[in-house]
Amino acid sequence: MYEGVVQDLIDELGRLPGVGPKSAQRIAFHLLSSDPADITRLAEVLGKVAEGVQFCETCGNVAEQEQCRICRDERREPHVICVVEESKDVLAVERTREFKGRYHVLGGALDPLSGVGPDQLRMRELLARISSDEVTEVIIATDPNTEGEATATYLVRVLRDFPGLTVTRLASGLPMGGDLEFADELTLGRALSGRRAL
Amino acid sequence: MYEGVVQDLIDELGRLPGVGPKSAQRIAFHLLSSDPADITRLAEVLGKVAEGVQFCETCGNVAEQEQCRICRDERREPHVICVVEESKDVLAVERTREFKGRYHVLGGALDPLSGVGPDQLRMRELLARISSDEVTEVIIATDPNTEGEATATYLVRVLRDFPGLTVTRLASGLPMGGDLEFADELTLGRALSGRRAL
């Protein structure tokens, strides 16, 4: 509807997740009146991403070097590995400041209907790490949804055979600050079955 | 919080209007798993926008050539000019399919507090067009808000001196499909004072 590069820009922005046609137009006109240096910076960082982002050789987290910051950190406990689906989950766990071990990023969750089996995830790398390092505990921190639960079940089955290895799963239950009344029955059911003695 | 280029991407995306930190992260991780060709296309179009977008020499609309599509179109009535604030307003009027004249894009509205006076808008170009072309009507289609109304008032005062020129303003009133009960008092007042004989 617009001419030339403006419409191209609106089209490309509209392809991004969560950016509808109205937002794409608003962002495009914002950029049209922005400092060209700002636009160039965004274009350059996109160019770098298109060339490929580096992932940690050990854990699969996004990284600047061959190893990510956490895997390079000598102070992190090497005997505990927290298994997550994506890099953003690493960040979520880090924000708790409760975890001093290391991570393993699977790169997704098992989803056979979408063609994601164990070979599409970084499962082999995880097993290799557990075999070579002296890992004593694997914390399964996949999402509490169908795919994440399926991945957790698969992991438990595979990891059961390692001698001396404890496999744990993040607790399910009521979210803190929430309201019991508004909890869905699945969450409340998990909170009940996972109740703790005080 | 992320390492390297991923955090740069999230930062740059987060600067766009309407894109908060969560959306920026979601878009960034979407791009990380996208086809590099798609990312490159977005980067390239941004690069073109940074180099500068062309505006129509006559009306100030975004254009691919020296003249925009509408100014090049011989079938458009040259005697009627619809004055709007932005290029997106041209598109809004075009969508009505009711207007067969030409446009003039001011590039904003008068807003002295933000330093936007007549010299910051394409006012001089408008007066030149009215003087040279045989313009018989100017339709003021600035936004019905404080700045738009101020701009309309200014235009009426300036254009009053042109002999044989009719100056009109878009009607204010109840939006179609709306509900009288929920109309704000300003809109309903305008609808009353602008009532038409049937």
TrEMBL record, chains A, B:
Recorded GO MF terms: DNA binding; zinc ion binding
UniProt-listed CDD domains: TOPRIM_recR
Gene3D superfamilies according to UniProt: 3.30.60.80, 3.40.1360.10, 6.10.250.240, RecR Domain 1
Annotated GO biological process: DNA recombination; DNA repair
Keyword annotations of the record: DNA damage, DNA recombination, DNA repair, Metal-binding, Zinc, Zinc-finger
Zinc finger regions, C4-type: 56-71
Top-rank taxon, per record: Bacteria
Domain Toprim residues, every copy: 79-175
SMART domains in UniProt: TOPRIM (SM00493)
Leader peptide range in chain numbering: none
PANTHER family on file: RECOMBINATION PROTEIN RECR
Function: May play a role in DNA repair. It seems to be involved in an RecBC-independent recombinational process of DNA repair. It may act with RecF and RecO.
Family: Belongs to the RecR family.
NCBIfam families in UniProt: recR
Protein name: Recombination protein RecR
Organism, as annotated: Haloechinothrix aidingensis
Gene encoding the protein: recR
